[in-house]
Write a structure and sequence with these properties.
Order of helices and strands: HHHHHHHHHHHH
Shape: elongated
Helix content: 55-70%
Strand content: under 5%
Largest sheet: none
Low-confidence stretches: 6-12, 182-198
Number of strands: 0
Radius of gyration: 19 Å
Mean pLDDT: 81
Distance between the termini: 57 Å
Length: 198
């Protein structure tokens, strides 16, 4: 199934950015294999997504683990959240699959999603221990926030504000001690008191 793997970032699976919405029949056709052949290797859409995205899941989880020793845990947390949101937004449609898979132990994506959530939870706990992140959040909350922001980035009407929305949410995740050192829309929030009252 090298043809399918090689098409993960090309027109076969990711055409028009609709990563999660291309049919299995279309994937088979664009990869130049028969549908029956594709289904023998990947019996479900989730199995196909896992095969194509497993490396990316592992890379994001590894980044979280590597960031755990950062002397600036708040910045490390926000940076990792940004990377996760950017990745899930790039593969439009995958957010819905991930949100469903993490609640379904039978899904081929379940283990990768759980591992990613656990890596993010550890990074969150590190920020909490440093007094930089709110103590009433857990890994499930963080995973849900990432999914929410990625969904917003999928919406054409909201996409232009995605960076600003991420900054707002980042400030909500953190305590005053953990305010991030910078961001795409941070400058608008520093002196925005007048805009709020308008």
């Amino acid at each position: 199934m090298d043809a399918v793997h090689g098409d993960a970032d090309g027109p076969g699976v990711h055409e028009g950015g609709q990563f999660g919405h291309v049919s299995m029949r279309d994937v088979a056709r664009r990869a130049g294999v028969g549908l029956a052949t594709l289904l023998r290797h990947f019996p479900t859409r989730e199995a196909l997504m896992e095969a194509l995205l497993h490396g990316s899941f592992e890379e994001l989880a590894a980044r979280a683990r590597d960031s755990g020793a950062s002397p600036a845990p708040a910045d490390a947390l926000v940076t990792w959240v940004r990377e996760c949101v950017a990745w899930t937004t790039a593969y439009r449609g995958v957010t819905v699959l991930m949100a469903a898979a993490i609640e379904d132990p039978g899904s081929a994506l379940h283990a990768s999603c759980v591992a990613l959530r656990a890596a993010g939870a550890a990074l969150l706990r590190r920020a909490q221990e440093a007094g930089a992140a709110r103590g009433d959040l857990d890994g499930e909350d963080l995973f849900a926030v990432i999914a929410m922001l990625a969904w917003a980035g999928d919406q054409p009407a909201l996409a232009p504000r995605a960076g600003r929305l991420l900054d707002v949410v980042a400030h909500a995740l953190l305590t005053g001690r953990g305010a991030p050192s910078g961001g795409d829309g941070g400058s608008r929030g520093d002196g925005g008191g007048g805009d709020e009252s308008a």
